[in-house]
Amino acid sequence: MAAAPKPQEPRWVGWQTVRTESASARIVDQVWTALFRGELKPGDYLGSEVQLARKLGVSRVPVRDAFRTLQALGVIDVKVGARGGARIAAGDPNRFASALAVQLKLIGISVEEMIDAQIAVEVVAAELAAKRATAADVTRLRNLNEELQAYKTSSPQFTEKAMRFHETLIEAAHNRALSAQFKALRTVLEPVYAQHISAGVVKRVVGWNKQLIESIAAADTARAGALMRRRLEIIRARQLMKAVD
What we know:
By secondary structure, the chain is mostly helical. It has 10 helices and 3 strands, in the order αβααββααααααα.
């Protein structure tokens, strides 16, 4: 008969005894603090409910509650079974983007606030793309713009593809923080842009995209940033006028 697998030992040893009345919150706080101090990294094993309850001098209930909170925050993954327990999760920018988009919607973010944030993210991204974009990045942007040019009039499908162009441009900046922020913004911006469509939009968007692509291909950082800022400020002014109407 095969021997039972040896229980895993937690790799992090920085636990402090917690008071029962606030045990769950204190456990969460310890893990959170340790993560940002660099004491914990993705894949590190924190232990099972039983191990941590014993180590911290509490029942399994507050440990279980802490696991649920940390799991909801995306900090840990929990596996059940004989070799189960909690590990620090791998990063997932898409999870962050989805959560941020929900919170932006729930707080009732205004059109003005959304476009202000878009300007802040995309101007920097355009400048970085001019420095960092690869030939493959530029090809993807050109291909998307050609697809946009095929539309005879603006439509929700056109808006979706136009926003994909913006997302691809930000990916060309090769900055994961900017990409995650824009994905969240895109979720709340796209329905707003899709409400206000006209036949003249296609021509303007395609022409602007061409200028932007060429500035990125030429590694012209200043021009790329200026083009993006000017275009988004025009969009901002038009959207705010429509909001008033």
